[in-house]
Task: structure prediction
Amino acid sequence: MVFSGIPFLFFFLPVFLILYYLIPFKFKNAVLLAFSLLFYAWGEPVYILLMLLSSFVDYLDGLILEKFADRKNIRRLSFILALVINISILCFFKYADLAVETVNALFHLKVKAPGIALPIGISFYTFQTVSYSIDVYRGQVKAEKNYFSYLTYVSMFPQLIAGPIVRFSTVQKDLHQRRMNESCFVHGFKRFCLGLFRKVLIANQIGELWDIIRSAQSRSIAASWLGILCFTLQLYYDFSAYSDMAIGLGEALGFHFPENFIYPLSATSITDFWRRWHVSLSGWFRDYVYIPLGGNRKGVLKHLRNMFAVWFLTGLWHGASWNYVIWGLYHGLLLTLEKYFWGKWLDKRSAFFKHIYTLLIVVVGFGIFTFEDLHELAAYFPGLIGIGNAAVSASDSLWYLGNYLPVVIFAIVFAFPVWPKIVKSMEEGNRYRQKLAGICEVLLMTALFVLCVAALVKDVYNPFLYFRF
Amino acid sequence: MEEKRVTISDRVSVYLICGMILVFTAAFFLNGKQEFSESENRYLAALPEFSFKHLAEGKFTEELEKYVTDHFPERESFLNIVSEAGRLSGRKQIDDIYLCEDKTLIQAYGKPKNVEKDVRQFSKLCDAVENAKVYLMLVPTAVTINSDKLPKGAVTQYSQSDTIATIYESMAGKAECIPVQQTLEQMKPEGQLYYRTDHHWTTFGAYIAYEEYCRAAGYEPLSLSDYTAESVSTGFQGTLYSKLSDTYFGADEIVSYTYPDWDLSVTYEDSGEVSDTPYAAEYLDKKDKYSYFLNNIHPLITIENRNAAEGAVAVIKDSYANCFVPFLLAHYRTVYVFDTRYYKGGPSQFINEHEDIKDVLILYNMNTLDNDAGIGGIY
Result:
């Protein structure tokens, strides 16, 4: 099931919320767990077993790690076993096909690919359970004694299939004792709605435009650039909206999930971009891969190696296709260059220059990210500099843009931290201004909700981008 | 953790939205369910039957989702909101429909994928037909003929004229190919050739093409003024209208032409029904008003005009021919109309068995030719 759909909004969510709020606290986790399993099983009735297995392994590992606190060998064995099992499951279900196809291509073989459908959310929940094992092993978090509590953490439907990647330490307290009140609900639900609007009214629209441009027979240079800009906006709005919905729902249920997107497109360098884009993922790689490998403290060569490893894996995490790896390494390379070559120089440039520099790199990067088919990638990119079957005049881009102008403008403007500024200026205004703002808010929220439902009822274009992740 | 500030307007909007959700959920269960959507002209998803197999495959839940979305309360109003919001936000193209001047809707021409198959099937028929001459008429649609009406700067990806040229070139020598684009373009000032809200041509458009057919087949076309014209409906909201369901676009007029000297017997071979007119007035009260012409879908219709001379023609066609066929009645005693989606066994055998058939006309429009399910039945 996805959040942005009639079944979730009008059936799953109201039934769940009513039950969840009515039931006494000690049963709340049980309701949450039951609905989370239903939520997952709805789209993946068979693969739910995989999630149960994966989380059970780490739960067990956690118990063993604590029980044998002073038996180093047992601890190590159990820990490594848990890691191997989890990573193997992930590799097999996500990368087996890619591995076979790559070997085939390299050695001109014709081994049949196993053709495994990717279990939704596997990359997210595997990273969560693995982080738990590592944290318990390091003694940074106490093992969870109750399997159902642990399973509630892993399977919690708000963040199950598209993040944020919540660490156990973040929600451990909330799992057993959380404060829930009306203002949490209102605030969380509002955040959920805003996320929903961003997904349905911005991401889906811009995605439609990207699809049109992508499938065009020929494109002008301008249209080619507009295309990958649109994909960038689509991915940002889609992904961050999903995080918004997750964080909002979590809040309404009494959980506090970490922020995941902090206006990444307004970053002033690639280094800055990665502090803002999918924060829970880059934090994961930092804490569990980069720093254990020695980070940048063991000399330049090792640092380069570590960068390569982290960005290779970051790329690969996004999907079983080599374009993601290219995209990851591209970002790794630019981060390295910023660190060793032009970072200091860049600091002194004007804000405008830094925005353009960052956006250009990010947009081209997502241009690589979007084409899983490397042939299509190779056919599209020359169009960016006018090589290949590019249309001569740029009138096509005007047509595309004209059709989607309001939403493109909204998308660009609100990718920068404009909204908080508007809210702040309204709150600081005089009483009449506040009243006016309040009325506008109510009208806007209800109107957008109606539009949203209308778009979902029509349901022409409502893709789920992370099913590759 | 610090308490976040929640304002009255936050509360009001959140509870309003929650209220809307509950109202619609309740309405969904209380409302009666429609099986068929008149305005969209399609069957809505049915409640899926439960089976463990479907459940395991994820099919059951998928169909349940479709059911829920298809039967959502006020569904048509919501569809209307989407189109209207799109139009008001400046959209000039929604899905594959251009929103043109004068509230005209024009369907875009998609990538032709089945050109070779079309040629192969047409050729099969030409080879199989023994004693009759085969004519081929591919009709460009509004996107080509009325391209001047398209919104300014509209990107049109593929050209119908190119596809027609390709097919005509391959068919040269096998069938007589009748070009109609130029004449249709010339006749634009004389009247409306295509409906504003439907993908079909008007009866007037069909008449222009009929003149071209006569020129190719050696007949003297009757003048349109010889016919009795009658406006049979002014409330025709066609297929393009239905895709948007935006009342802004209004409705079309359907004009029907009857010849005073017709003495017809129209036999629908599948149902055995016999009528004295090629028109079915009962459809004028329904949504699908174009079915007024030739009574919607039948595998084979035999029309006999007892006041006409000898000879017969077989028409192999899509729905564009439905308003075209009546004009042929002036020149043939019998007109056989095939719908190869449903007519089994291929028309060529039938044609060879009926010696009165002198001419065979293949008539398709360019927008649906590529996906026409009947092409495979032409041989």
About this structure: Chain B touches chain A through 49 residues (CB under 8 Å). Residues 111-377 of chain B form one domain.
